[in-house]
Specification:
The chain is mainly α. The protein is built from eleven helices and three strands, in the order H-E-H-H-E-H-H-H-E-H-H-H-H-H. The chain has a three-stranded mixed β-sheet with strand order 2-1-3. The longest helix is centred in the C-terminal third of the chain and has 35 residues. It is globular, with a radius of gyration of 22 Å.
């Protein structure tokens, strides 16, 4: 009994973990450092721009841009909780992260991932109302409802993380501190456990139903009705406008959900660990970098807002 208490105390007092990442391929590390630094810069600039423009320009005070600014905030949380630490580890010989840093990364990944799944379904409902009930859009999507939907997404994701983070960290590791990943992600932490993890993995799968699968089902149902509505539009211009309204969201949903489902909806030891690293890199850096460009930086409203903020909106050209 005393020995078990001592072992538990030793495990909970660990001061750091070793993030192996890509340390066995030093050339790849240097390439990834440069590429990730560039992507991180554009992710921060692009998402910060969306948030600032949504706050500063009254023309963007609409439900769609309210949801988009929340998505941009989530993407900033995703990248900032993991990429700076990864850049430090890629650049130098030290591949460590403090225990507290690991806890923060795990909590951020689980909460932000859950929030984004639900928020994307909220955005799909917003597009459904915009296409299928355009005359009643502002009546249905009133500010109070938008706040309630966003609050529900944030609270659900945080609750999921509050439940899963302690369970993951409480798994006995028997002194194992080497994580074969570049972040403290749940599947990677489960893999270094020295006990049977089937119960935790079963709970992960169970919680993925309301956090991942139910929102995905709602997205698919919304787009089924949207597709029917678009099909019934007679004019080609009307169809094109309706398609453009939803195309960006469909692309982002496809990118995000394909990587999340592959990573989290299977047991920790099944997926190729290298595949898991690149998939994590994809949804915590590549997708947040692409989202602002896919969604808004190419449309007229945001370009007009940027010109207005920069003071060039009434120039001769």
């Amino acid at each position: 009994m005393t020995l078990r208490v001592m072992e538990t105390a030793n495990e909970t007092s660990e001061e750091y973990f070793i993030l192996i990442g890509f340390s066995d391929r030093p050339v790849l590390e240097m390439i990834l450092f440069v590429v990730n630094l560039i992507f991180y810069f554009f992710a921060v600039m692009g998402n910060s721009t969306i948030i600032l423009l949504s706050l500063l320009d009254p023309r963007l005070h609409t439900p769609m841009y309210f949801f988009l600014s929340n998505l941009s905030l989530l993407d900033l949380c995703y990248t900032t909780s993991s990429i700076p630490q990864m850049l430090v580890n890629l650049w130098g010989p030290r591949k460590t992260i403090t225990y507290i840093g690991c806890v923060v990364q795990l909590f951020a990944f689980l909460s932000v991932g859950g929030i984004e799944c639900i928020l994307l379904s909220v955005m799909a409902y917003d597009r459904f109302v915009a296409v299928c009930k355009p005359l009643h859009y502002m009546v249905i999507m009133h500010p109070q409802l938008c706040l309630q939907l966003v609050a529900f997404a944030w609270l659900s994701g945080i609750a999921n993380s509050i439940l899963m983070s302690p369970l993951t960290l409480s798994l006995r590791r028997c002194g194992h501190q080497r994580i074969n990943h570049f972040v403290c992600e749940m599947p990677a932490l489960i893999r270094i456990s020295c006990v049977n993890t089937s119960r935790v993995e079963g709970l992960v799968f169970f919680l993925a139903i309301p956090i991942v699968l139910v929102p995905l089902t709602m997205i698919l149902v919304s787009y089924r009705y949207i597709a029917a509505a678009v099909y019934n539009i007679k004019s080609a211009a009307g169809r094109k406008k309706a398609f453009n309204t939803c195309a960006s969201h469909m692309i982002v949903v496809s990118l995000f959900y394909s990587s999340i489902i592959y990573t989290y909806m299977q047991p920790g030891n099944v997926a190729s660990q290298d595949q898991g690293k690149f998939l994590t890199l994809f949804y915590c850096l590549v997708t947040p970098t692409l989202n602002p460009f896919i969604y808004t930086l190419r449309n007229k409203e945001v370009k007009g807002a940027m010109r207005k903020v920069l003071g060039t909106g009434r120039g001769p050209h």
